[in-house]
Design goal:
Protein kinase domain-containing protein, globular, alpha+beta, Phosphorylase Kinase, domain 1, six-stranded antiparallel β-sheet, three-stranded antiparallel β-sheet, 6 helices, Transferase(Phosphotransferase), domain 1, 3 domains, about 250 residues
Length: about 250
């Protein structure tokens, strides 16, 4: 019994240490940091319809233009204006740069700004993520797979999306099935999501930045490249390595 209790205590200590390290390095946000909005709430002119989902870096809400000037429904992400880690700022900047390059595997931004104590961005809606598509295919985990033809088509689109992101000088650093979705109106279109961990890998002169000797872990353990597990700086090949683990 004593040995069992010691093991439990050690496990708890390890979890606490891991959580503390993650928070100190800015990898995750606590639940208290996530903006909670409810049906009928407004951010600028956007009215909340419902919550679409929630992750480590915040929640996504289904919204409509309360003034009726913009038809349709859209996705809104928000973070507290007082937040010290500006995840949303990176997301907006990356999407704007991608728009300039006419990239085709990304959401369009309709609105962005600060209102009611929040920084926010409103984007076009997407369909289900690859994760959700696979899970709804069958209740049997062994059968939660795409057909060969579908997997090949998806794979080509994912590599295209990674190439477009790298083309504007950024790394994603969290490539995984949950960060890709199909188009809302075009299920053959693949869309890359979530750029809160993105990092510029080129300098102002367009040259590849010198890798850091040590870097904090970034990404999702299951799909993280080997270099992340040994605290090496992320580079372009690591995004592609994470893609291989999606198979």
């Amino acid at each position: 019994m004593a040995a069992t209790g010691g093991t439990k205590n050690l496990s708890a200590e390890m979890k606490e240490a891991a959580a503390k390290a993650a928070q100190e390095s800015g990898i995750v946000q606590t639940a208290l940091d996530i903006v909670q909005l409810y049906k009928g709430d407004k951010v600028a002119t956007w009215e909340i319809i419902k919550k679409l989902g929630e992750g480590g870096f915040g929640a996504v809400y289904l919204v409509k233009d309360a003034n009726g000037k913009i038809a349709g429904e859209y996705a809104l992400k928000a973070e507290k204006a007082s937040e010290t880690t500006r995840v949303l700022k990176m997301e907006v900047y990356v999407l704007m740069e991608l728009k300039k390059s006419n990239a085709k595997h990304f959401c369009d931004i309709l609105d962005r700004g600060r209102a009611n104590g929040y920084n926010f961005v409103v984007m076009t809606l997407v369909g289900p993520s690859f994760d959700n598509l696979r899970k709804t295919a069958s209740p049997d985990k062994a059968k939660q797979k795409f057909s060969l033809g579908c997997a090949l088509s998806i794979g080509i689109c994912v590599v295209d999306a990674i190439e477009e992101l790298h083309g504007i000088g950024y790394l994603h650093r969290d490539i995984k099935p949950g960060n890709f979705a199909i188009g809302k109106s075009d299920p053959r279109r693949v869309i890359m999501l979530d750029f809160g961990m993105a990092r510029k890998y080129i300098d102002a002169q367009g040259k590849v930045r010198v890798p850091r000797w040590a870097a904090g872990f970034r990404g999702t353990v299951r799909y993280a490249p080997l270099s992340c597990h040994i605290s090496r700086d992320h580079c372009r090949k690591d995004d592609l390595e994470s893609f291989l683990y999606m198979q």
